[in-house]
Amino acid sequence: MSKYLVQKSGPLSGEVFISGSKNAVLPIMAASILTAGECELYEVPALRDVEVMSRLLQSVGAEVQEDYDSSSLTIKISHVLSEEAPYELVKKMRASILVMGPLLARTGKARIALPGGCAIGARPIDLHLKGFQALGAEIIESHGMVEAKADKLVGANIYLDFPSVGATENIMMAASLAEGTTILENVAEEPEIVDLANFLNKMGARIKGAGTDTIKIEGVRELGGTKHSVIPDRIETGTFMVAAAITRGNILIHNAVPDHVKPVIAKLRECGVVVEYNDESILVKGDVNPLISTDIKTLPYPGFPTDMQSQFMALLATVKGSSTVMETVFENRYMHIGELNRMGANIKIEGRSAVVEGEKTLLGAQVLATDLRAGAALVLAGLMAEGVTEISEIYHIERGYEKFLSKFRGLGATIIRIED
Ligand code: UD1
Hints:
Bound molecules: uridine-diphosphate-N-acetylglucosamine
CATH topology of the largest domain: UDP-n-acetylglucosamine1-carboxyvinyl-transferase, Chain
Largest sheet: 4 strands, mixed
Structural class: alpha/beta
Radius of gyration: 21 Å
Strand order of the largest sheet: 22-23-1-24
């Protein structure tokens, strides 16, 4: 198992370029199942999760050509050869569930192993399945597999009990090829939903309202191939913003969309961090003011993103005062707290909240990346910790951050990867 060794570094300074969004490219890749035409994708990050999705698409019959030098990917699925997403791929990545809607819509059938992924709560898929059912599919669950079948999909009015990102995407993809109109209410409003809707509309879909809480989809008979550039990754952007703050550094972040990270900007400013931005770059100065505590509550977009909670908590452990962090999106997303406390932080779980007593001197320790973003939080803490922090299970981090080490090293971080 490989590990990262992180040494106290910084203040980090310099410029960094943000890659294409992991959470946008995965559903877009899945959406290519909806057409026999060729889809050309640009700004595709070279990530383990993207590789897993490529293999998953290949297993259902796709020809996939990757060009990592130009960050592009071409997908063509002339014929779907299998409607099944095999367990050995699905267990590696929860987002594999996103092939279900497109497979069902294109072939009338989809069979998928129940998904794995980050260990952050139960993460059921009931909302996805309820949506497919409302469109006319029959759902059969047995032996760890779930199957959806339909002679044809028919548009419906669907209200989501919770604005799930994945369920919104999956149902939107399936409804694009359904007969008639689908109205999806209480849906997720994340920028990744808008990017997927833009991609589908370029393929010939008729989707309106993406980015609001109600989406209208007029089904079409057929979709065609298209070309699309994936939006920048807002969570990678936020992670580098926190890197500037936690090391009291000064980082200029390029290829960012400031609008997508508004809650992170607001919370950093409350802590005393200076943030300036224009259309595509963000300058974060953690070296101007002494930093102070603030409170955070994670919420669906445009609220504070759950995917930034652990990184921000690492920052709060280093600032003056006491902060409360409340996670409302996932029920078990506090696994990093034990690891941060091993490094000298003082964080206590009280009910659904965590109370962070700040201004602790962090000390390097052996710690475990329990999920992708928790791993990023430990690297950030390691940059401020005395001595060396040894982080294991780093495959989680490499699932979702492109060129993670070289980008951090480019800003002055001392961090190496060792093979055990
Ligand atoms: C996506 C993101 C993930 C992010 C999350 C929330 C991708 C590939 N991943 O995950 O990085 O942390 O959004 O912003 O885009 N839920 C149900 N039933 C369902 C579906 C979800 O109860 O059928 C619950 C989940 O258990 C969770 C909450 O809804 O508590 C949010 O999940 P969801 O928005 O679906 O997250 P993902 O799409 O899995």
